[in-house]
């Protein structure tokens, strides 16, 4: 059931990103087409200069957004950093052209144009502030790293514990005592599997309250494992004591790995970056583009 939910969630996010990337590409094409058609219709050096600046600003705004989304989707730190730098480079060009536009508008712009330029400036400042945190989070990939730790080192330690507990109970006599020890060992294995499951849910959870609740559940399962291992140690003969000691040592390492998993997961950078990209960033970017489009229409009307 959970796997189906996870697939549906992933599908929804994927569709949202696909739609966003298509919109970005359309904006780039429309901005280019707008400049070509409007520059033919409008005369005057000042008007053509404004149209050229506005077309470049819209295209670079779209490119910056496209590279930002690629950074958010990248699971590799190097790839994410590369896309983030490309996004910043395109945004820098928007900022450069914004200053040129402000200067040209101050000299020859109407009151309406100056109002729109100021409006873009405010929206652009907000967008830059959002991007600063968003791109930093995208490059950290803490949720991805946490999941990798859980599925590699965590899973390997779990297998080692299982193996040592199996060896511990394999040759126990009499049968009733073997059954008793196997029951305790099984309880420990189930509790460790529950911890691994809670780790995955912790990584996937967004609200802090949900993460705290899962951490409490992990502590409860840890207590069950510790109690089970202590009981097994008391019941184990000298020849088999090495197995319970190794299982106990490996469980201690498993919980140290768990601490790092929850630390990375609590930073939650992948979730935060995705939420910003599909939420506040998308709205601020759309507002910037709408204002630039309005400025294009205004510039195209002038003789």
Automatic annotation (TrEMBL):
Annotated transmembrane regions: 12-35
Keywords carried by this UniProt record: Membrane, Transmembrane, Transmembrane helix
Lineage top rank: taxon: Bacteria
Protein name: Chemotaxis methyl-accepting receptor HlyB-like 4HB MCP domain-containing protein
Origin species: Chlorobaculum thiosulfatiphilum (Chlorobium limicola f.sp. thiosulfatophilum)
Source organism phylogeny: Bacteria, Pseudomonadati, Chlorobiota, Chlorobiia, Chlorobiales
